[in-house]
Amino acid sequence: QVQLQQWGAGLLKPSETLSLTCAVYGGSFSSYYWSWIRQPPGKGLEWIGEVNHSGSTNYNPSLKSRVTISVDTSKNQFSLKLSSVTAADTAVYYCARGYSGSYYERGSYYYYYYMDVWGKGTTVTVSS
Amino acid sequence: DIQMTQSPSSLSASVGDRVTITCRASQSISSYLNWYQQKPGKAPKLLIYAASSLQSGVPSRFSGSGSGTDFTLTISSLEPEDFATYYCQQSYSTPRTFGQGTKLEIK
């Protein structure tokens, strides 16, 4: 049973850098994408970005200038850094496993990608 | 970015009701559509992937349909544990955007 355990600082001051790490236990690390998603209080989900085992990344353009997602395959961990935080970055931050695959049905191939395993979330508050 | 719009934003229903939630993409996303359920204080849970494939362990009362730009999530007969917020998400391209959510409440 794959589990994601995440940790990091929960209280930051404006202009500081948010830093979170997510460890993967109980499963393969190399066959998946590893994502970060956040949820401001009372609001919906926002995808931040993802990394694969080789370090290839995709970022949300709205955050790209401030975000770095990296991977440490020796520890089966991946990390999020978000620089120059403001109150607008206050949110619950989740790590998640992304999987892509395909199936064949009625003469056609269908492709998919989903996030099926999630960490429990880390509450990050930005306040002076 | 592909925008995902869910309707309704909130919904009141009773145990045993059949419920349908709609999700519309701003452009065609083929079948790259997932549905998640989130309960207060918990991480989202994957229900449906590839528009209509039921994730392992998810009850069969949940079903999904659609392709292109219009998708639906149907719960055939509501159980007490189904009252939650539901999100659609497109995985056709990055950024992998979510709908704004549909809060399903007990009537």
Report on this model:
The complex is a heterodimer of chains A (128) and B (107). The mean pLDDT of chain A is 95. Helices cover 0% and strands 59% of the residues of chain A. With 128 residues, chain A is mainly beta. In chain A, β9 (91-105) and β10 form a beta hairpin. Chain A contains no helices and eleven strands. With 107 residues, chain B is an all-beta fold. In chain B, a hairpin with a 3-residue loop joins β5 and β6 (53-54). Chain B has strands spanning 4-7, 10-13, 19-25, 33-38, 45-49, 53-54, 62-67, 70-75, 85-90, 102-106. Helix content of chain B is 0%, strand content 48%.
Outline the secondary-structure elements:
The complex is a heterodimer of chains A (128) and B (107).
Chain A: E1 3-8, E2 11-12, E3 18-25, E4 33-39, E5 46-52, E6 57-59, E7 67-72, E8 77-82, E9 91-105, E10 108-118, E11 122-126
Parallel strand pairs in A: 2-11
Antiparallel strand pairs in A: 1-3, 3-8, 4-5, 4-9, 5-6, 7-8, 9-10, 9-11
Chain B: E1 4-7, E2 10-13, E3 19-25, E4 33-38, E5 45-49, E6 53-54, E7 62-67, E8 70-75, E9 85-90, E10 102-106
Parallel strand pairs in B: 2-10
Antiparallel strand pairs in B: 1-3, 3-8, 4-5, 4-9, 5-6, 7-8, 9-10
